[in-house]
Amino acid sequence: MKVPLRRRERGLHFNITPLIDIVFLLIIFFLAASHLARSETAQAVELPEATRQTDEAELAQRVVVTITAEQRFFVGGNEMLLPQLEFMIQQAKVDAGEEPLEVQIRADRTVPYGTVEPLMLSCVKVGITKLNWAVLPTR
């Protein structure tokens, strides 16, 4: 009795499973990144105008704090009281370790300085010296 031999197929076979895995990971990454970008600007604030503009260097870590005209603080779309905000900034500084950490303040143009000053003092107390203001360029 003759045992049937399996025919050997000639040609190139390409396994695309790892490629599909990478594509799905990229899709998940971009979905998460777009969600975070939208949550930073979730509150509508009327930004002040500035006559000068500096180039925005990308840092490893950034915390965006939005202060509305009603003098309410938001981080990532979540409303926070000042003590909660101070604790969150302190935790972000600890998590950043040796990497530079930046706090960007998006304050409505009608917000008085007395509302922003405690936030700035909290940043300095923790050791964050890189504070940026979100402004609109003058036309």
Helix content range: 25-40%
Strand content: 15-25%
The run of helices and strands is HEEEEHEHEE
Figure out the total of helices: 3
Termini separation (Å)?
91 Å
CA radius of gyration is 25 Å
Mean pLDDT: 82
Classify the fold: give the CATH topology of the domain at 39-52 and 59-137: Nucleotidyltransferase, domain 5
Which oligomerization state do the chains in this entry correspond to?
single chain
Structure characterization notes:
The protein is α/β, with parallel strands linked by helices and 139 residues long. It has a domain at 39-52 and 59-137: 2-Layer Sandwich (Nucleotidyltransferase, domain 5), CATH 3.30.420. The protein is 38% helix and 20% strand. It contains 3 helices and 7 strands. It has a 5-stranded mixed beta sheet with strand order 4-3-2-5-6, with helices on one face. α2 (82-96) packs parallel to α3. The longest helix is centred in the first third of the chain and has 24 residues, at 17-40. The protein is elongated. The N and C termini lie far apart (91 Å).
Please describe the structure with a list of short key phrases separated by commas or semicolons:
139 residues; alpha/beta; Nucleotidyltransferase, domain 5; five-stranded mixed sheet; two-stranded parallel ribbon; 3 helices; 7 strands; 38% helix; transmembrane; cell membrane; transmembrane transporter activity; ExbD; Biopolymer transport protein ExbD
